[in-house]
Backbone:
């Protein structure tokens, strides 16, 4: 191999290696696990304290708001398993009974604590083709 | 009709395959007839796609709910405007939209280049036809937009969700698509160059304009998306590093890199393999982005369904694309040898190379982190996601490096800069940067990252201004004209270069806007009427709620009064709207007060009508408007760079030099003036309006205008002031009394003294002239201008410079000669 090629390859490896290490360390700080409600509720203690993105559907008539404040309490479910959640802040427009939501926060004994701006309700229009014979409502 | 639509798509697929086969056969055999046949079939595909598109649009307008797609995204009550834009509202239609745009672009590109790029054209046709065939195949077997219901025949539609019924829905997707699809054309030419072995510089010269145009549309599309998020979604920000957003950003990064590195190939014959690889990667990323947003392979707020079959088909296409494209590159490696080597790291080529590395790193970083959840699930079984703060932490230093390069690149000389060069070029910009940095520290602004950003903005801005000033000065000294005309002449001679500088100036302003995000503040408060909240320098006082209804939606509006440093700034009215039939999905109407220093952003998060309490979110976003302003400067720069040869040469040769400058100055001032005339429309609170109870009332509410004098002659049905309400009540009374349309109009004319109260003068007799006059004079003006232009350009025939006598070609000498000539500039 020519000297130039050796130099190029060597510098690529060194820089690439340094960046990968940097990436690895920073990702592990910021990473959040993406889980569905039923996956977590089978063994909640295992998930205490870990940063989670919890995916589920808001249980009908479970949304409670303390009057004159932005404190919310509601339940989310998936395949029958339910988790209680609490949140303070602005909720998105599409947040209502039955909405498909992803909650960012962490789980502890008293339920799921959602971090500020951590309620992500999915866009109401699904960008997908209709399967024949199926309604376009999320499965409950 | 649905069957006809399906057939059209099927026919387009078959004919595209014919175009592909004919072109390849014709290119390999060198048979003109086959090539011409291929081109003809290619144009037929375009025609068929236009027909198919018009059919689906017709189905929307007419309300043919037997077609599933139409039934899903439209309904009777939907305004016509949104019926039309629903074409790209769902997956199937968006694929058809993609093919239609690709076919249209392809036809134009082939037509424009049919003479100049004879050897490349058949291969270009073949490549575009293959891409068309893939998307058509998707529609034929999987996602047919013309699919009908088999057992039921619905008479009503579901309708487009009100959250999507806004202006941005109409313009953001088409702009993005124009950008994505536009990148296929340069790719096709690149592949054509590889396949045919014609690897001189002509392939990318042919498509430089296309790439810039596609880049322009991509920039516009991304910015519109950010604006949409900012104005409609109400979370106070404009970019969330959501997978869909990132999908649009990836080809933008590589496209920008490509636009820069082709300059190195043009000047120094280097980076040939790099450039062709870049355009392949850019095209690949457009397909990958489409794949990501449709297959459900990543989770996003833009909810995607999971479509395994679609995912597999896309994956197969992408694998084939990469294999064939890079296979061809490897095959043609001998022809892609660089003509020169990198002489020094202190050179423009080197800075472009570093610029490319940074942009490519950004692209792959964003790609990797976006796909990280999928990758981690595949490897470790756990789905791990990373949020926006992570992206911002990494992209901030990367962005600053890019900003720094923007200033350094144009100042370094080709091949090598000497120390004297460096001192001369960097003295003023360096000083500007350092002084700004010192000022930043003195004012207590943190150096990382906002302070550094400000210093770099000053640095880069000074480099750009320096280039303009020095260039104009040299020109004016050489030709003896004034500085301003010299400046215009600079643009005329090197549109791409100085247009590029304007684009860079826009980038500086955009970064200025980004830096402001470091200083944004917000408050969430619960208020009763009379209470106020202070978020310096604004004080927001809450006065109460009002509930109103306009027939289409119910509106709950918060009445807020804003003061700054004691001076009242007027009222702001954030609201929540509840559309009929969609009461469970209210829309947030943000109250936004824009300014060059900051934005005041108010959201009515929650309310209780009985106690009149409101939960408010108050956000201050400093400097954010510089982003939008910076983008518009970038657009102007791109237009300048895209101008064809003849524009300026005509203007500067036939008209006295000074006149050009004066007229341009006048135009610029006028355009600024016109913008001012559109007075700032402060969103007024929705008072109770009188909804029309009959078609006649509705008609009259559009025929008569509000005479309050402050709404700018709005139709009485649209204005919400008290005078309008009074007039609406009067119309309602007259209609109830049984008067005819003409009688009511005559009564209003008598009451207000003239036809001024009407939105249009009555179309009879003398008034017809009023109608015709503007059109007539416009037409006459255009004809006159055209006549004068043709006369002038034909007046004296200047003999074209005789061709320099050809010297027997010695390629090595030719190359050296070309290099040295280029270095002279």
Residues:
């Amino acid at each position: 191999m020519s000297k130039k090629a050796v130099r190029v390859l060597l510098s690529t490896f060194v820089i690439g290696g340094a960046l990968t290490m940097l990436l690895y360390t920073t990702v592990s700080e910021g990473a959040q696990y993406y889980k569905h409600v039923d996956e977590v509720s089978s063994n909640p203690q295992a998930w205490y304290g870990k940063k989670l993105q919890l995916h589920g559907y808001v249980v009908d008539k479970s949304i409670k708001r303390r009057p004159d404040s932005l404190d919310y309490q509601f339940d989310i479910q998936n395949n029958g398993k339910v988790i209680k959640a609490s949140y303070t802040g602005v909720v998105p427009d599409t947040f209502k009974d039955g909405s498909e939501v992803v909650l960012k926060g962490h789980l502890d004994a008293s339920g799921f604590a959602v971090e500020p701006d951590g309620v992500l309700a999915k866009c109401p229009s699904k960008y997908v083709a209709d399967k024949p014979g199926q309604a376009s409502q999320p499965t409950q | 009709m649905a069957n006809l639509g399906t057939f059209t798509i099927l026919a387009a697929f078959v004919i595209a395959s014919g175009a592909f086969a004919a072109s390849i056969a014709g290119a390999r055999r060198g048979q003109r007839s086959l090539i011409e046949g291929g081109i003809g079939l290619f144009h037929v595909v375009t025609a068929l796609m236009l027909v198919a598109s018009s059919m689906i649009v017709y189905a929307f307008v007419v309300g043919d709910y037997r077609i599933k797609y139409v039934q899903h995204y439209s309904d009777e009550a939907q305004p016509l405007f949104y019926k039309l834009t629903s074409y790209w509202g769902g997956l199937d239609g968006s694929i058809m939209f993609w093919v239609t745009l690709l076919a249209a672009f392809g036809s134009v590109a082939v037509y424009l280049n049919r003479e100049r790029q004879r050897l490349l054209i058949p291969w270009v046709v073949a490549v575009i036809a293959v891409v068309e065939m893939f998307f058509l195949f998707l529609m034929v077997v999987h996602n047919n937009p013309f699919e009908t219901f088999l057992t039921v025949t619905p008479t009503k539609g579901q309708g487009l969700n009100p959250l999507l019924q806004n202006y941005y829905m109409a313009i953001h997707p088409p702009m993005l698509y124009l950008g994505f699809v536009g990148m296929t054309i340069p790719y096709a030419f690149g592949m054509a160059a590889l396949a045919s072995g014609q690897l001189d510089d002509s392939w990318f010269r042919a498509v430089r304009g296309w790439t810039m145009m596609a880049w322009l549309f991509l920039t516009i599309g991304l910015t519109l998306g950010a604006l949409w998020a900012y104005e409609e979604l109400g979370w106070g920000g404009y970019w969330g590093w959501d997978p869909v957003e990132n999908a649009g950003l990836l080809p933008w990064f590589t496209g920008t890199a490509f636009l820069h590195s082709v300059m190195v190939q043009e000047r120094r014959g280097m980076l040939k393999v790099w450039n062709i690889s870049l355009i392949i990667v850019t095209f690949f990323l457009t397909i990958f982005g489409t794949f990501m947003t449709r297959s459900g392979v990543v989770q996003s707020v833009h909810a995607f369904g999971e479509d395994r079959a679609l995912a597999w088909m896309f994956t197969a296409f992408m694998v084939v694309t990469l294999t064939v494209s890079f296979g061809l590159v490897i095959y043609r490696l001998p022809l892609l040898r660089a003509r020169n080597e990198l002489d020094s790291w202190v050179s423009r080529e080197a800075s472009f190379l570093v610029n490319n590395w940074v942009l490519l790193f950004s692209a792959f970083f964003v790609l990797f982190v976006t796909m990280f959840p999928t990758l981690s699930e595949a490897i470790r079984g756990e789905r791990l996601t990373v949020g926006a703060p992570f992206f911002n932490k990494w992209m901030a230093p990367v962005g600053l490096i890019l900003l720094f390069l923007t200033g350094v690149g144009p100042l370094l000389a080709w091949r090598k800069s000497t120390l004297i060069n460096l001192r001369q070029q960097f003295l003023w910009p360096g000083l500007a940067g350092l002084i700004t940095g010192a000022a930043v520290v003195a004012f207590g602004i943190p150096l990382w990252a906002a302070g550094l950003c400000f210093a770099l903005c000053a640095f880069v801005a000074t480099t750009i201004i320096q280039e303009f000033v020095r260039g104009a000065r040299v020109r004016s000294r050489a030709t003896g004209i004034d500085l301003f005309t010299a400046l215009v002449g600079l643009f005329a001679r090197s549109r791409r270069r100085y247009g590029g500088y304007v684009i860079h100036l826009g980038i500086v302003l955009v970064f200025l806007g980004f830096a402001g995000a470091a200083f944004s503040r917000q408050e969430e408060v619960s208020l009763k009427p009379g209470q106020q909240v202070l978020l310096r320098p604004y004080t927001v006082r809450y006065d109460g709620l009002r509930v109103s209804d306009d027939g289409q939606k119910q509106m709950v509006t918060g009445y807020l009064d804003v003061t700054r440093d004691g001076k009242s700034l007027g009222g702001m009215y954030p609201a929540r709207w509840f559309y009929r039939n969609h009461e469970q999905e209210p829309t947030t109407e943000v109250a936004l007060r824009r300014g060059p220093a900051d934005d005041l952003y108010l959201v009515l998060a929650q309310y209780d009508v009985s106690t009149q309490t409101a939960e408010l979110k108050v956000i201050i976003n400093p400097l954010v408007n510089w982003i939008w302003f910076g983008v518009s400067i970038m657009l102007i720069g791109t237009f300048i760079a895209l101008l064809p040869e003849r524009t300026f040469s005509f203007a500067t040769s036939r008209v006295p030099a000074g006149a050009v400058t004066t007229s341009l100055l006048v135009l610029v001032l006028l355009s600024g003036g016109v913008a001012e005339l559109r007075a700032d429309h402060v969103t007024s609170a929705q008072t109770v309006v009188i909804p029309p109870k009959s078609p006649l009332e509705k008609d009259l509410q559009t025929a008569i205008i509000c005479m309050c004098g402050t709404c700018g002659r709005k139709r009485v049905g649209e204005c919400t002031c008290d005078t309008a309400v009074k007039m609406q009540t009067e119309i309602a009374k007259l209609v109830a009394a049984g008067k005819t349309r003409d009688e009511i109009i005559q009564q209003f004319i008598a009451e207000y003294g003239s036809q001024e109260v009407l939105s249009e003068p009555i179309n009879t007799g003398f008034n017809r002239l009023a109608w015709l006059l503007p059109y007539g004079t416009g037409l006459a003006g255009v004809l006159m201008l055209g006549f004068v232009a043709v006369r002038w350009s034909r007046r004296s025939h200047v003999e074209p410079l005789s061709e320099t006598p050809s010297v027997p070609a010695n390629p090595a000498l030719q190359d050296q000669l070309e290099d040295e000539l280029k270095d002279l500039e």
